[in-house]
Amino acid sequence: MGGLMFGWEFPSHISGGLGTACLCLATALKDQRVELLFVVPQARGDESIPLINASVVVVDASQNTARVTEERWNPAVKITAVPAEIKPYSIGENTVCFPDAHFIVAGSGDLLPQMMERAAYRKISSRMHFTGLLKAEQMRQVLSVTQVYVMPSVSDPFGITPLDAVQAGVPVIGDIDALPDAIINLFRHNVLTNASRGNSKRETKSLIWKRAATSINQLYHELGSTLS
Amino acid sequence: MNSDQRYLNLYFQVHQPRRLQKFQFFDVGSGQRYFDDDLNRDIVCQVAKDCYLPANTLLLNLIARHPDIRVTFSISGTALEQFALYAPEVLLSFRQLADTGAVEFLGETYYHSLAYFKSQEEFIHQVGLHKQLLRDVIGFDPTFFRHTELIYSDAIGKLVSELGFSGMYVEGAPAFLQGRTPNGLYTHPEASFALIPRNHRMSDDIAFRYADEAWAEWPLTGKKFASWIDRLPAHEKLVCLALDYETFGEHQKHSSGIFTFLQEFILALQRSGRFMFATPSALCDLMPAGPVVQCVGASSWADQARDLSAWLGNDMQRDAFETLYRFQDLVMEKDDMALTKDYRHLQTSDHFYYMSTKGGPDGGVHQYFSPYRSPYEAFMNYMNVLADLEFRLRGKRRGLWPSIEKSAVAVAAEPR
């Protein structure tokens, strides 16, 4: 059986995200002798590429809160957005508990300047370190000195970075409501840190790409035989 | 004292900061140096060649031919230090100017800093360090003062007067003048302390508008400029033109004719005889004490706002500034010469100037001086250096993180 795989870059040149997932999965599938054709968009500037979004999105909000807004880079493109309420974390107050706590903000993006301004407004720049984009090896170095990996983003197309953290034995917190409390608890109780490290590591064992590739391979074969 | 006599004071500011080198997150705790010695040497040598040496020669020649010409300089300690390191011939030519007796040198903070706003003790110390250095390398004992970027308030004036200076320069900004003319001598409300306002309109005609072809007065010749001064109302007794010395040959290139302009303008005024060239100390003796002026808020010569917003206008600048001075006591306790020196070089106002997010014409000027692509890059770099400084201060006992082994790979700073 042959497979078609769609992505926007191959091989991935940055750590994390869909690119890495595509690369790892494609490599694992190839190991299982699946003939794979990887399709990347060739942007000429004017053509539009229709994308099929396969993920199931459950929006816990009433229809009338949905708003049509303009796409950030192109006002002609309208997208439907559901406003989400994000509780402020008040990091500024909580660091008082742990004056030596340091937050490393790894990566880059178009909201980085605003994040830097926000940290400065909160007067916590000396405890927030903005590294810019990290290469895989640098990510490993950062994780090696990290006590807790915090993922406050409300959405991520493919959250590979928490898996990187788990693989490095760093506990991951993603629930934004529980964020400050969870961080404080982890700082307070090193025992918990060690315990979460162990648990998380065990979880990653089942997350290896080989398994994912096997499942996919299996699924496609089942589908293939059902259809034929 | 001739009450009809009118005076012209020419004051040039010479300053070069110790620019930082690219200091990334992975450099924290690595022992890497903070300052880009190669870049600083290149810039100092280039500006020496384009500006300091030819401009000094021009002034030396003019003074030799016309001994009544007077010029005033203020040279920051960070500039003097770098001349000694990279371009000693510049120091020599400033010494030659000092030897003419026609040139006065001003006192200022060694590190061209904003220390006054955080620690008067540190400010006083830096003024003392500068005085010592000026004595050592130029052989001049300063008695008149210029604060970083002409920042002034009544409180600053009072402190400077207590340090034994007879007066200081102020920006002829509306905040200070409150409707009065910039062309006169003023007095501090509490002390017998002279204040010389800079005529910013005429100074900026040279500093910013000289090469602007869209300006109605372009091209500006030395004779035309001298005629503007000649035509000022007779009751305006003192005109002070204060500029970055780098205007001559660096901001305005040699090819723009700026050196010819300078020579023509000085000669034209000298020949007309209506104005007497004077240094600030001489002015205090020659002129009657001026009217008292109160100035509560801080004014400066930077940006259109002419306040502190060029260095402390946004949250990043303020947080970086606060973080820096949180280390003041720790650094002094350590009593480590290399550490203290680094710490003081980090106080140079330029580092904060690069973090300004102002747009418009102000933003353009900030960008012109900045070695960074953006204020965010400047901020990130500076904060990494401060993190390293904290690492050095606290040692491993309360270190930031177990030193991440020095990465061989550089972090790509470009956004994806």
Provide structural commentary.
The complex is a heterodimer of chains A (228) and B (416). Chain A is an alpha/beta fold and 228 residues long. Chain A has a domain at 91-205: Glycogen Phosphorylase B (Rossmann fold, 3-Layer(aba) Sandwich). In chain A, 39% of the residues lie in helices and 14% in strands. In chain A, the strands form four sheets. Chain A has a two-stranded parallel sheet. In chain A, α1 (17-31) packs across α8 and α6 packs across α7. Chain A is elongated and about 65 Å long. Residues 405-416 of chain B have low confidence and may be disordered. Chain B is of the alpha/beta class. In chain B, strands 1, 2, 3, 8 and 11 form a five-stranded parallel sheet that branches. In chain B, strands 4-5-7-6 form a four-stranded mixed sheet. In chain B, strands 9-10 form a two-stranded parallel sheet. Chain B folds into two domains: 6-286, 7-stranded beta/alpha barrel (Alpha-Beta Barrel), CATH 3.20.110; 309-394. Chain B is built from 17 helices and eleven strands. Chain B is globular. At the A-B interface, α3, β6 and α4 of A face α12 and α17 of B.
